[in-house]
Amino acid sequence: MTTVARSGPPASPPKRSRIGDLRMRDVYRGLAVVAAAAAVAAGVVFVLPSGPDEVAAGPIAAPPAHASSSGATPPLQETPTSSVLGTTAAPSDAATAPSTTLTPSPLAATGRPAPTPGTTLAPGYTAMEALYADARLPRLPAKTRRVALKAPAGRTVKDRRSGVAVPRLAKPWKTYGPAPFTTRQVLPQARGTRLRGMFVTCPLPIEEQKAPRDSALLAARWTLNHHPKGATITWLASQPVRKGWMLMYRVTYGKHSSRAAVVVLDGGMPKPALAFVSVPDTQRKRWADVTRVISGVRVLG
Question: pTM here?
Answer without folding.
Answer: 0.64
